[in-house]
Design goal:
- The chain is mostly beta strands and 207 residues long.
- The chain is built from four helices and eleven strands; from the N terminus they run H-H-E-E-E-E-E-E-H-H-E-E-E-E-E.
- The chain has an eleven-stranded antiparallel sheet with strand order 6-5-4-3-2-1-11-10-9-8-7.
- Strand 10 and strand 11 form a beta hairpin.
- The chain is globular and about 45 Å long.
């Protein structure tokens, strides 16, 4: 949704949520995965607005460091509001304001100048598989009465993405994404776990 700092690179162009090696199984799309993703796309396109609470975790395997932050996002069309840790980000579709409450500093930029094209926005994560990805159904399992489906997405042009796999977990009954893991080529993984997800709520344009 926007770039805030290097640790939050993916979320910043977000908000939060999906280089491939030429693996033989990733060359064709899995029909089972395609059926699930088509349902997700159809449902996502009916959303006029989205509000979500999530946990964002960055795992640096090389340095053996893990950072976790809670966040909230509200999206309406091209506009969004993101709260992540000390940062508040507001975007009216053209201008992006980023406020660091820890430093009590704010910046104002044209969105096109700070947009990280390597990372999907929150809205794009809801249908990220529609272009530039191959996909494979990994598993289906039931935990505490809830059935989850896991699908792996592989960028069809591996050199264009900083991650080689996007692993999405779906609540089968609700047909909603509950978790996205981006497996980075540099050994840094980004994990988004959605704890609350509401759609088509009444959001004023100035929110």
């Amino acid at each position: 949704i926007i770039e805030i700092n290097t640790n939050m690179k993916f979320l910043s162009s977000l908000l939060l949520l999906v280089a491939i090696s030429a693996s033989s199984f990733a060359q064709t799309n899995d029909p089972k995965a395609e059926a699930v993703l088509n349902k997700l796309s159809e449902k996502a396109k009916s959303y006029n607005s989205v509000e979500a609470s999530f946990t964002f975790t960055q795992e640096d395997k090389k340095a053996d460091e893990t950072t976790t932050q809670s966040g909230k996002v509200k999206v309406k069309g091209e506009k969004f509001m993101l709260v992540l840790g000390d940062y508040q980000v507001y975007n009216d579709g053209q201008i992006t304001w980023t406020y660091d409450s820890d430093l009590n500093e704010a910046t104002k930029d044209y969105t096109e100048d700070v947009r990280d094209t390597d990372s999907p926005t929150f809205s794009e994560m809801l249908t990220m598989w529609e272009e530039g990805f191959n996909y494979q159904f990994e598993s289906e399992k039931t935990v505490e009465g809830v059935t989850y489906q896991v699908i792996n997405l592989f960028p069809s042009k591996g050199n264009e993405k900083p991650y080689h796999t996007a692993k999405i977990t779906i609540d089968k009954k609700k047909e909603e994404i509950v978790k996205i893991i981006l497996l980075g080529k540099d050994g840094i993984d980004y994990i988004y776990e959605i704890s609350e997800f509401k759609v088509n709520t009444s959001l004023a344009d100035n929110t």
